[in-house]
Amino acid sequence: MGTGYSGSRRCRSSDGSTVEDLARWRKNSQEFHRRDSLEAAKTPAMFRDVRSGDDRVVLYTMESSHDGFRVDLTLREKGVTYSGKTINIVKGEHQTPEYTAINPRQKIPSLIHDNVVITESCAAMQYIEAVFNRDIRLRPKDPAQLGKCLQYIHEFELNLDPKNIADKVLYQRMSREQLVEEIEALKAELVIWDGYLDSKEYLVDDFSLADIAVFPLVAQLTECFGLDLKDYPNLQR
């Protein structure tokens, strides 16, 4: 399988940290899928620090979460120094009173900036873009391109994982044999996204929040099932 859209070449961070973290995240995602609940319960205690930085910006996530990685990438692309804390959902840390006070829906990720709490990954991306480092733009200026960028983000949220396959694999531990219908729906969806990249490097004119929204889930789903991206040449390149 090529790296392509499920790899790191579309991320612009010049210091290599994004590339290294993508490799780590993909490895952790695979390991999380393989290990059982007993082994996962041996991982470190609640809210383990995974990144030490500015305590004014804190990202609560888990290392196999494509949603959390989406926010992580946006912070890095904008050059934001932040603190990262890992939550072990197998141990139920997302249901503790401490985390429920942050995110009443007990989901991951949660982004805290001073007194602002954002608990949806795509909303967090938009917030980061609006607040931090306006010299680096991840939303197009052109209204037509901005409209397409927002379209792809909303379309991704509604359609890219039409059968909620990521949740069934990572958290319900369902096997490929149990997910025949879901895999076929995923393949059909990947055909559409491959078409969006026809003759283009990015979803819009330049690297944007749309690319950051989409590729962590594409990477995770293709890795989980070993799907060969040669059937999707624009995603692969």
From TrEMBL:
Database matches in Gene3D superfamilies: 1.20.1050.10, Glutaredoxin
InterPro entries: Glutathione-S-Trfase_C-like, Glutathione-S-Trfase_C_sf, Glutathione_S-Trfase, Glutathione_S-Trfase_N, GST_C, Thioredoxin-like_sf
Annotated Pfam families: GST_C, GST_N
Domain GST C-terminal: 142-237
Domain GST N-terminal: 55-136
Family: Belongs to the GST superfamily.
PANTHER family per the UniProt record, alphabetical: GLUTATHIONE S-TRANSFERASE GSTA, GLUTATHIONE S-TRANSFERASE-RELATED
Name under which the protein is recorded: Glutathione Stransferase
Organism: Perkinsus olseni (Perkinsus atlanticus)
